[in-house]
Amino acid sequence: MPRTLALLLVVPLLVAGDWPQWRGPKRDNVAYLPGLPDNLPDKLPARWRMPIGGGYGGISVVGQRLYVMDRQKDPEVERVLCLDTQSGKTLWHYSYPVRYGKLDYGNGPRCTPTVADDKVFTFGAMGHLTALDARTGQLLWSRDTVKEFEASLPTWGQACSPLYDGGYLIVQVGAKDGCLMSFAARTGKVVWRSLSDPPGYASPVLSGDEIRYFTPTHLVGLARVDGKERWRVPFEGITYGVSISDVVEADGVILASNYWSGSKAIRLKEGKPSVVWEGKQLSLLMSTPLVRGKYVYALDRFRGLKCIELASGKVLWENEHVTPRDRNPQASLVWVGDSDKALILNTPGELLLVRLTPEKLVPLGKAKILGKTWAHPAYASGCIFARNDEEIVCVPLVKQ
């Protein structure tokens, strides 16, 4: 198949309501939940709860199958689990040995499995890239990126969720001249390698014929076909490699932000970047913002959830503390379809329904669904699927 045609086949045909990868069906933080009530009740009974090992990694759902990673300590292995979405029953699991050693925050894997082409692709905290048969769990291929490519691990382990792009898999590896690498999804063969930047924690994003990526030293644009660099914007002052939040784009403005030195918003003119605004009016940590129209809704390191006009950097409102104030505030944000409503899973395991507009945030209900979590949930088939270091839970949000 010609590469140009393959680029059009980014996500395979899926059942309506699937959540096949990091940040949802289109990797844009949008959940499709027809029939979601206008207000969230204060109690949401679980359909099932099942024990699970440690991990910050998110959840993927395709059809009646759920995919997630965890870590077991005795013996020490990382696992890929496939569960039945109706019962929580384990359908299969695949494991491989790891040694976390003194890895900080070393509870388990950080990535969200990517499901495409009847395969499930995972990337472990210590750099193990695997491709499994999505139905049986049979190993199709694997790459130990540290051993094979002399890759460097970020301080807190690999967190990049593999990006599937028309038969190719794009992953932050952290190798010399291969911070980002592309692999053939069918065989695991290296297709291209790009960038000599150090590894961070963000995941690559597609935009037209480009890949956008935020490293600890640059915001970059790469050609989607071959990974060749097209443009870059330097970032200074990022320590510990904490470029974590994914790049977002709206109204022609591309935004990257970090914990230490704040944000830069850029526009491209004839393929060349220019900085529209920069500063600490927005300092992101782990949470990827929501964008809609000309506005971005983001969890700031200091000042809670805020709304910013993307073209100017003007703060329209802030200090909506949808998750407890903390040195490392975290909440997972998704839009509810094309509405102005959003669902927020915060650190204490509370699910919030809110309305977000440039004028204000309007609370529409809150319910606790599990204990402390930083992991990103999945929204599929009218349910939220969420996990922490002890359990994974399915909670219906829409009457079946």
Essential attributes:
mainly beta; four-stranded antiparallel beta sheet; globular; 400 residues; single chain; 33 strands; five-stranded mixed beta sheet
Count of helix runs:
2
> Tell me about the biggest sheet?
5 strands, mixed
State the helicity in percent bands.
Answer: under 10%
Q: Structural class, please?
A: mainly beta
Give the tally of β-strands: 33
Question: What would you call the shape?
Answer: globular
Mean pLDDT across the residues is 95
For the largest sheet, list the strands in their spatial order. Answer: 1-27-28-29-30
Euclidean distance between termini CA atoms: 41 Å
- Beta content comes to over 45%
Rg over alpha carbons = 20 Å
Unreliable spans = 1-15
